[in-house]
Design brief:
By secondary structure, the protein is mainly α. Helices cover 66% and strands 0% of the residues. It has a domain of 82 residues: Tetratricopeptide repeat domain (Serine Threonine Protein Phosphatase 5, Tetratricopeptide repeat). Helix 3 packs antiparallel against helix 4 and helix 6 packs parallel to helix 8.
């Protein structure tokens, strides 16, 4: 995939989506930067973020929104630089770690994406998107079994171990063959 291709036309879900069912706070409702990317006005969002950053260079939210808009324009290296700035100001910013991981995946930096997802999961072990993109990075690294485990965790699926599955099948067969015997 071309690095200039927009996330909107990508086969890979760009970034974790804000839940449509969540009720935004009043501050979020009035934030033009949050509204612009949803309308595809990424350039305007970047310009607005640049103005905010010029006035407040340590504005984590402005750096974060700028990175998101850059990524949606396919400017992955620029997005990574913005997310790096977020993380220099707030190292445990889980969304920035996950977003940076996705940008790394688009640039083919799968090991870096895996590290970002692992750091996000260290901070929030149940973060579904971190598990999902961890699986994607592992898949590209050809570590398929680990990828499946990550996908399952993203979906909240808990699979029985091979040993437990074997025991369950044996119990079923023993019960069918010897209905009067006590189960194991």
């Amino acid at each position: 995939m071309s690095t200039t291709q927009s996330f909107q036309s990508s086969h890979l879900q760009p970034y974790p989506c804000r839940s449509a069912t969540s009720v935004p706070s009043q501050a979020q409702e009035r934030n033009p930067v949050r509204e612009m990317p949803s309308r595809g006005e990424y350039e305007a969002a970047i310009a607005h973020c640049n103005q905010m950053i010029a006035q407040q260079p340590e504005n984590v939210e402005a750096w974060y929104e700028r990175g998101e808009a850059q990524a949606n324009l396919g400017r992955y290296a620029e997005a990574i630089a913005s997310f790096d700035q977020v993380l220099s100001l707030k190292p445990q910013h889980v969304a920035a770690l996950v977003f940076r991981a996705v940008a790394c995946i688009h640039l083919g930096a799968y090991q870096e994406a895996l590290l970002d997802c692992n750091m996000a999961l260290a901070a929030q072990p149940r973060h579904a998107e971190a598990w999902l993109y961890r699986g994607v990075a592992l898949r590209y690294l050809k570590r398929y079994q680990e990828a499946y485990v990550s996908y399952d965790k993203a979906l909240g699926v808990r699979r029985a171990s091979d040993w437990r599955s074997l025991i369950a099948r044996l119990r079923t067969k023993i019960s069918a063959a010897f209905p009067h015997w006590r189960q194991l």
